[in-house]
Specification:
It contains 5 helices and 14 strands. It is an alpha+beta fold.
Length: 290
């Protein structure tokens, strides 16, 4: 992980690709991210594998060969056949809500140089006087629940969005600049439970999935293209038996057949919700605002 993190409760078309789902709202969101994060980028530090910050961001300097297109494997816009992974590329968070969340997060949390990761903790019941989550993230959870319900099995939807939560919830906010990524990992088994849902804002990226057990050499890593405002769900095997990560590069190669498309990365804000196991409930800790 780099920088500073804080607690809070073949042949292909070489042209840069402009995704068809772009809208005026997305353009404004990307512009706001670019302006608000125009800080000097932090240096790299190493953390223990047992750190709560298990999604360490890989920082600059960027290797000179990082954007060589010939070394990239094309990423699909369709979810790979991994049990427990759910992703629908056409299912997008409304641009107005995406813009509101981005503006709030940038002003509230990413308003100083070097801060690129924030963790928030919500109590097991949102009816408590202090839930730990800002209202806008509770609104986001409610919106995601409605949007994802038609595409999820009932038991998975209930796992992610229970009527009465029994565990504390964590929200981790990561800010990525072009060329940054995540080392392949499985979220900490002794700290987080099953059921993870993530959202991309401001920019797309490609997420790579690889089997934890490599007994079958024929199982190649899977490349999945995540457009901005899309949501991804990891449960079961996708959560426990496959690693997920993001390569350090400034562009991605996308397509299920030639000609492939080159998609340029921008500044990306990711928001991921996870369940804390009972033994790791740290919601009672009071943390000062940045």
């Amino acid at each position: 992980m780099h920088g500073k993190a804080e607690f809070h409760g073949g042949e292909f078309d070489s042209a840069i690709y402009s995704p068809p789902w772009d809208s005026g709202g997305d353009e404004r969101l990307r512009a706001r991210l670019k302006i608000a994060t125009n800080f000097e980028r932090p240096t790299t530090t190493e953390d223990s594998p047992d750190s709560l910050f298990d999604e360490g961001l890989a920082a600059s300097p960027i290797p000179s060969d990082i954007a060589v297109v010939g070394d990239m494997e094309p990423a699909s816009s369709c979810a790979p056949p991994i049990p427990g992974l759910f992703f629908t590329p056409s299912l997008l968070l409304p641009p107005e809500l995406a813009d509101q969340i981005t503006e709030f997060c940038l002003k509230q949390y990413f308003n100083r140089p070097g801060v690129n990761q924030i963790m928030l903790f919500g109590a097991a019941s949102d009816s408590t006087p202090w839930s730990g989550m800002p209202p806008i993230l509770l609104e986001l959870l409610a919106s995601m629940s409605v949007l994802l319900q038609p595409s999820l099995p009932p038991e998975i939807h209930a796992l992610l969005f229970p009527r009465t939560p029994t565990h504390a919830r964590q929200a981790i906010l990561n800010l990525y600049h072009p060329g940054e990524g995540i080392t392949p990992h499985v979220d900490l088994l002794k700290r987080f439970g099953d059921g993870i849902v993530g959202l991309s804002l401001g920019s797309s990226c490609v997420m790579q999935f690889a089997r934890v057990e490599e007994a079958d050499d024929n199982v190649r890593p899977k490349q999945l293209f995540l457009p901005e405002r899309t949501m991804i769900v990891l449960s079961g095997d996708a959560r426990y038996a496959w690693t997920h990560g993001i390569e350090k590069r400034t562009t991605d190669l996308v397509g299920d057949a030639e000609p492939f498309r080159i998609v340029e990365r921008g500044v990306r804000l990711s928001i991921t919700f996870r369940w804390l196991l009972a033994s790791e409930d740290v919601v009672g800790l009071e943390v000062t605002e940045p």
